[in-house]
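[job 0412] stage=fold_complex status=start
inputs:
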Amino acid sequence: MLFIPNFGGLFQVAILLVNAIAVLSEDRFLARIGWSNVPTDPGFGGIQETTSVKARTINLITSVRTLMRIPLIFINTVVIIYELVLG
Amino acid sequence: MHRSAYNNPPPAHSPPLHHPVPQHVSTVPQLRSPPPPVPQSQQQSPNSYGYPQQGGGQQAGSGYAHAPFGGFMNDPTAQMGFQMGKTAVAAGQEYIDQNLNRYLNVSALKHYFNVSNSYVASKLFLVFFPWRHRPWSRQQRLSPNGQDGYFLPPREDINSPDMYIPVMAFVTYILLSTLLAGLRGAFHPELLGLTATTAFAVVIFEILGLKLGTYLLSISNESQLLDLVAYSGYKFVGIIVTLVVAETINAGQGTGGLVGWCIFLYAFNANAFFLLRSLKYVLLPDTSPNTASGASYTIARSQRNRRTQFLFFYSYIVQFAFMWILTRQEASPTVAGKAKAA
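[job 0412] stage=fold_complex status=done
writing structure:
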């Protein structure tokens, strides 16, 4: 068949990736490479360009960080306790 | 004492259709389960039916089997209790309907299962041989107020995606895969759940990837999620054919080898072309004048190219990966051992 797909491993990979997205530093890293979410410049007066791929990925990263901060605390605690108890 | 309505032994043909004349009203309440709460007809029936004393459960002759309450239902408090029970069941039914409609759009699901035999046959042929099919767009029909058009159901439009074929193909794939495992002696009952979970996970991953792609490329998706699930389920048809043909020709040595790869590549190409043509109208919004949303924004050339690339990537590369994952089978240990020993 599929030689027993490892769903636990898949879950661990997913949690690792989300953690990696969450710990990126906003001002030290993302602003340096220009991926920070700039608010609309009021002096600009125009439409903020949100339709390019890069703008949408930045938006996605920012929203993942905002949303998953608190659930990640709980999930990480659970995984840590699981790893401590069950090795 | 009373007329016996049946001269035949129990598993026989239909007894006469007229209601038997009650000759003897039973005073002992026969404890049968009450009929399902039929609102109108229940009012007239309970007091006036005795039940002919047959030996056992031959109630087929009495037409509609009204419960033999006999003297039990004459009691007004019992009648009131029965009424309350009926109201409670109706209220519960309504509660379930309301809440279920909030989580699961039942009417939308019904649209997807509105198929006919000819539709299923032609759609299966289309999944296998999509190269000569000419119009791929789904047909619309405007509702009477002329504003919102809705798509024709699969019964009337060959290009409309349905959920019948994907669901059936999914279940058939699970059973077939487990059957093949059993034929080579590697069956254990968890294999069913394992295959189901794997196939389910493949579909979910695919839909997630597709949704991510549509978000990143800002493709405004007008069609529903179930359409995408349906399109994703059509590859199970090709997978089933690959498994059947490869395993019969290979005599159980897995789906590798020349024949297996040939049939797999053909099924993959047919499925990919089918998806390419069908999803063109979903992922690449056309500039037709009668779009109901009226959003006629100009799409940049580069963005259009990117969307085409994404569609191609999804139809070919992603489907290849997933179809390959789902058609992997091990070689049978006994057949391989025999071939080695010979």
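[job 0412] summary: Strands of chain B lie at 140-142, 149-151.
[job 0412] exit 0
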